[in-house]
Amino acid sequence: MDISTIIAGLLTLIIFSFLYKDNPFYKMAESLLIGVSIGYVLVITWSNTLMDMLFEPLFSNAELSLIIPLFLGLFMLGRFSDKTVALSRIPIAVMIGSGAGIAIPTMLYNRTIKQLTASVMPIFTESGGLNISGIVVIVGLLSTLAYFYFSREHKGKFGAFAKLGTYFLMIFFGTTFGYTVMSRMSTFIGRMEFLLSDFLKITQ
Amino acid sequence: MVTTYDPYLASHQMTAMIGGLRGAAEYEKLLGMKGGGSRGMLAQSAAHLYVIFLIVLGNIFYFRNKKKGARQ
């Protein structure tokens, strides 16, 4: 058994020990996880972003246009002092401006227009029968929208239709919760399989 | 997570999605191999049955207590 399996197995058992009671070993494993995660992100950022995308092209290939992001990055550090805090507003403005410029059209297209297009389904099938899923989608969409429409009081027929929207919402929340439980169980099963087969060698 | 991306699958913005352990088992079946996904399905199904049992049990107690409360 290699050392990485032993460490992984012991850390898994230490984390599981929290189920019984909080203890110093659990705290150590928790801190280790946070430390390793931050260290990993730092190394990846240094090698994949700063070295590969900035320092190497700038100093080895003399791509002088990269001086601009270099200075923008340095300006961000201006937040540490009151005298230079104004400088940090420049990269933040660039980030928010370019971020919004990229995100708004993309979001509008992918999350609104494309989703609306997918919601508009024919009520009848090609053979002339009723397209049940299409009707469910339309009723679900309109009733859920009615539930979030607050300019009119939820009473009478409109209220009943809005109430139907809550049932569609409950189905969505229930499904999401069910999937979350399923994914947590998958993770637990994966860990148990690792413990029983790779670490303890009880099963094969 | 799967339900978040399901609408993108329905609108054909995404071609396919492998969701959870079941997705892994389905993918393994598609490849004609048996791996961790297929092995974990029995445990997952048993866990689901246990959860269903707990939901039913919880509902029985909920309605029983409600009935008791109405009587008092």
Ordered list of secondary-structure elements with their pairings:
The complex is a heterodimer of chains A (204) and B (72).
Chain A: H1 3-16, H2 24-60, H3 67-76, H4 85-119, H5 132-147, H6 156-199
Helix pairs in contact in A: 1-2, 1-6, 3-4, 5-6
Chain B: H1 2-10, H2 20-31, H3 36-71
Helix pairs in contact in B: 2-3
Protein described:
The complex is a heterodimer of chains A (204) and B (72). Chain A is mainly alpha-helical. Chain A has a domain of 84 residues. Helices cover 76% and strands 0% of the residues of chain A. Chain A has six helices and no strands. In chain A, helix 1 crosses helix 6, helix 3 crosses helix 4 and helix 5 crosses helix 6. Chain A is extended, with a radius of gyration of 27 Å. The two termini of chain A are 14 Å apart. By secondary structure, chain B is an all-alpha fold. Chain B has one domain. In chain B, helix 2 runs antiparallel to helix 3. The radius of gyration of chain B is 19 Å and the shape is elongated. Chains A and B meet through helix 4 and helix 6 of A and helix 1, helix 2 and helix 3 of B.
List key phrases describing it.
heterodimer, A: 204 residues, B: 72 residues, 3 helices, 79% helix, 0% strand
